[in-house]
C-alpha cells in the first residue's frame, strides 16, 4: 500500500453559473450528459488582519443587513417544486440543501436557504444560498492553481474532511470521538492528552462516505478495498485536499480568521482529470474562528469565537436530542437572523467585497423560477 494511504498526524462540463445577484438563492446551470445525471453528484502574527468579535456583533453594517434579513423571514423558500412552475424542468432530486432539476440537456442545481446539521434540516436561513454560491465562486477562482473545478464529472462517493484542530459537537466530529477514547480515526494516529480546540501537530484527512443519509467515517485502505476509489485517485485527491486546506488557512489568516476544518468533494471528468466540485470553504462546509482572540480563549478553556453554524448546532444540542428526537424545536428567529448575518459577515471579510442584498420583496420561489427560465432561454 502506498505512502499516501498511511495517514498519520505527521504524513511525510463545462460549468455555466447564473449567480444572479438579486436572488437570495443563486441557481447555477450545469451542462451534464444524461449518462452522468445519477452520479453522486502560517502567516506571521503581524501580517494578520486584527478581527474582533465586536466587529461581528456590534458593527453598523450588521444593523443594515439585519433589517433586510428580518424583512425576508416571511419569504423563505417553500417546498413547491420548480418543475411545476418552469415548464422546461422535468423532475427533481431533493438533497439536504441543494435541489437538482432535469432540464433535458442540462441539470439545474439550486442552492437553497435550508440549513442542515445532525442529518436533519433545522431551519431556513435568509440569503444563505446566495452566500454559499458567491463564496464558492470566489474560492473556485482563486484555487485553480491547486485543482481545476467543475460539476460536469462523475463524483467520487467520498467526502474529504480536512481538520486542523480538535473540535466539534456532532457524532462524527473529531472532539466527540476523541473524548470517547478513539485514538485512531480514519487511519490517523492521535496522541493522548489533546484538549478541545487544540491545534493538531499537522492537518489530517478524515474521509467519510454516505450510508442511509448520514456520514460514516472510513479509512483510506477501506476506500480502496471497497472500490470507492482507486489508489491512484485517492492519492491525487488527498494531496489536492490537503493543499487546498493549507492555502485556505493562509488566506483566512490574512483576513483575521482561522480555517479550522472543512470538507471537499471531487469528481473525475471524461478525460480522466480530477476536479474539485460542490462548494469551497463556505460557512456551510467549513468552521471558522476569529484568530485574534483564539490563543487567549484557548488558554482560559473558553470556546473560540466562531463565525460559522456551530452556535446553532450547540443551541439544538442544549434544547433537544437532535439525532434521536423525531420532532425538533423551531430555531428562534433571533438565532436564525444571527446565523444569516454571520454567513454574510464571513463572505465580506474573506472576499473584501460587499454582499449585495436583494432589493425586492418578490417571493424567493418566484424569483428562482424567473431566473431559471431566463438562464435556460439564453442556452437554447
UniProtKB/TrEMBL annotation:
Name this polypeptide is given: phosphoribosylaminoimidazolesuccinocarboxamide synthase
Domain SAICAR synthetase/ADE2 N-terminal: 93-327
Keyword Ligase: yes
Enzyme Commission code(s) on record: 6.3.2.6
Keyword S-adenosyl-L-methionine attached: no
The entry's keywords: ATP-binding, Ligase, Nucleotide-binding, Purine biosynthesis
Homology family: Belongs to the SAICAR synthetase family.
Domain of life from the UniProt record: Eukaryota
PANTHER family: PHOSPHORIBOSYLAMINOIMIDAZOLE-SUCCINOCARBOXAMIDE SYNTHASE
Species of origin: Salix purpurea
A biological process from GO: 'de novo' IMP biosynthetic process
Amino acid at each position: 500500500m502506498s505512502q499516501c494511504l498511511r495517514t498519520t498526524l505527521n504524513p511525510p462540463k463545462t460549468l455555466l453559473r447564473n449567480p444572479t445577484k438579486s436572488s437570495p438563492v443563486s441557481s447555477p446551470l450545469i451542462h451534464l450528459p444524461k449518462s452522468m445525471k445519477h452520479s453522486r453528484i502560517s502567516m506571521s502574527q503581524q501580517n494578520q488582519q486584527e478581527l474582533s468579535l465586536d466587529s461581528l456583533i456590534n458593527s453598523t453594517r450588521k444593523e443594515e443587513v439585519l433589517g433586510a434579513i428580518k424583512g425576508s423571514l416571511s419569504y423563505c423558500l417553500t417546498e413547491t417544486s420548480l418543475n411545476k412552475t418552469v415548464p422546461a424542468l422535468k423532475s427533481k432530486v431533493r438533497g439536504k440543501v441543494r435541489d437538482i432539476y432535469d432540464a433535458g440537456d442540462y441539470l439545474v442545481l439550486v442552492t437553497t436557504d435550508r440549513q442542515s446539521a445532525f442529518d436533519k434540516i433545522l431551519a431556513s436561513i435568509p440569503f444563505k444560498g446566495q452566500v454559499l454560491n458567491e463564496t464558492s465562486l470566489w474560492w473556485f477562482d482563486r484555487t485553480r492553481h491547486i485543482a481545476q473545478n467543475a460539476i460536469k464529472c462523475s463524483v467520487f462517493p467520498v467526502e474529504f474532511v480536512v481538520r486542523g484542530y480538535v473540535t466539534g459537537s456532532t457524532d462524527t466530529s473529531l472532539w466527540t470521538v476523541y473524548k470517547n477514547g478513539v485514538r485512531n480515526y480514519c487511519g490517523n494516529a492521535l496522541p493522548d492528552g489533546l484538549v478541545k480546540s487544540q491545534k493538531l501537530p499537522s492537518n489530517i484527512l478524515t474521509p467519510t462516505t454516505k450510508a442511509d443519509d448520514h456520514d460514516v467515517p472510513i479509512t483510506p485502505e477501506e476506500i480502496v478495498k471497497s472500490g470507492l476509489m482507486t489508489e491512484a485517485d485517492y492519492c491525487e485527491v488527498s494531496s489536492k485536499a490537503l493543499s487546498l486546506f493549507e492555502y485556505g488557512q493562509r488566506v483566512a489568516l490574512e483576513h483575521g480568521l482561522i480555517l479550522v476544518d472543512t470538507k471537499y468533494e471531487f469528481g473525475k471528468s471524461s478525460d480522466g482529470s480530477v476536479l474539485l466540485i460542490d462548494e469551497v470553504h463556505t460557512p456551510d462546509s467549513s468552521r471558522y474562528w476569529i484568530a485574534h482572540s483564539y490563543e487567549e480563549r484557548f488558554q482560559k478553556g473558553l470556546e473560540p469565537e466562531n463565525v460559522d453554524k456551530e452556535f446553532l448546532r450547540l443551541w439544538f444540542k442544549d434544547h433537544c436530542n437532535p439525532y434521536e428526537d423525531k420532532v425538533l424545536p423551531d430555531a428562534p428567529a433571533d438565532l436564525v437572523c444571527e446565523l444569516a448575518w454571520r454567513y454574510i459577515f464571513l463572505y465580506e471579510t474573506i472576499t473584501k467585497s460587499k454582499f449585495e442584498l436583494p432589493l425586492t420583496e418578490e417571493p424567493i420561489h418566484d424569483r428562482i423560477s424567473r431566473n431559471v427560465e431566463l438562464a435556460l432561454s439564453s442556452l437554447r
